[in-house]
Amino acid sequence: MASAYGAAGTASHAITSPANLLLAMQPIDPLTQVGHVHLKVADLDRAIQFYSEVLGFNLTQRFGNEAAFLSAGGYHHHVGLNTWMSRGGPAPPRNSTGLFHAAFLYPNRQALANALERLMENQYPLEGAADHGVSEALYLSDPDGNGIELYWDRDASEWPRSAGGELEMVTLPLDLNELLSEAAPAAS
């Protein structure tokens, strides 16, 4: 079926009127944020266990065996999970289109260190870790094969820039032992 975006599943990027051209030139409001990610999962209980026990999100609402919402800090939900079209299904092949990863921004380096410690306590495997200059990130996949990035941003004044002021993100090794040294002491 064709739409304003071209044939189903494709984008034509055609600007068809002066009004659309004006809209296309206006950037999105700078206060816009990604509010939540909603994922199709094969096993709702397994997914809830990962997002609550391994990552530490709180379950805010559950709809039987079909859907659940989890959050941090009392928000209605940062993560939505459902089995509406995916119950018992396989993970998508790595060489297919779709979500590369959902990224969860931690408020500071210590919070990211605490997340790493939590992963280690749960013996949950990392797939990678990197210092991007602007941020430090941990990479893993949830039990359904969805990519997950856990990261914190450095202050914008510390971001690497070229002589001309252009942002210059990098991918350098992240010293996990050094990051772990910043974890908060365990509560007794």
Question: Key features?
Answer:
2,3-Dihydroxybiphenyl 1,2-Dioxygenase, domain 1, alpha+beta, 26% strand, Signal recognition particle alu RNA binding heterodimer, srp9/1, disordered N terminus, 11 strands, 4 helices, five-stranded mixed β-sheet, 188 residues
Describe this structure in words.
The strands form three sheets. The protein has a five-stranded mixed beta sheet. A four-stranded mixed beta sheet has the order 3-6-5-4, covered by helices on one side. A hairpin with a 3-residue loop joins β8 and β9. The relative contact order is 0.14. The chain has two domains: 34-89, 2,3-Dihydroxybiphenyl 1,2-Dioxygenase, domain 1 (Roll); 100-188, Signal recognition particle alu RNA binding heterodimer, srp9/1, CATH 3.30.720.110. Residues 1-8 have low confidence and may be disordered. The chain has helices at 18-25, 44-54, 109-121, 176-180; strands spanning 2-3, 6-7, 37-40, 58-63, 67-71, 79-82, 102-106, 128-131, 135-141, 147-153, 172-173. It has four helices and eleven strands. It is α+β, with helices and mostly antiparallel strands and 188 residues long. The protein is globular and about 50 Å long. Helices cover 20% and strands 26% of the residues.
Distance between the termini: 60 Å
Provide the β-strand percentage band: 25-35%
- CATH topology name of the largest domain: Signal recognition particle alu RNA binding heterodimer, srp9/1
Shape: globular
CATH class of the largest domain: Alpha Beta
Mean pLDDT: 90
Unreliable residue runs: 1-8
Number of strands: 11
Tally of separate domains? 2
Strand order of the largest sheet: 7-10-9-8-11
Task: Based on the coordinates given, report the CATH architecture of the largest domain.
Answer: 2-Layer Sandwich
How would you classify the helix and strand content by structural class?
alpha+beta
Rg, nearest Å: 20 Å
The H-and-E topology, N to C, reads as EEHEHEEEEHEEEEH
- Determine the number of helices (DSSP H or I, runs of at least 4 residues): 4
Biggest β-sheet: count, sense, barrel?
Answer: 5 strands, mixed
Which bin fits the share of residues in helices? 10-25%
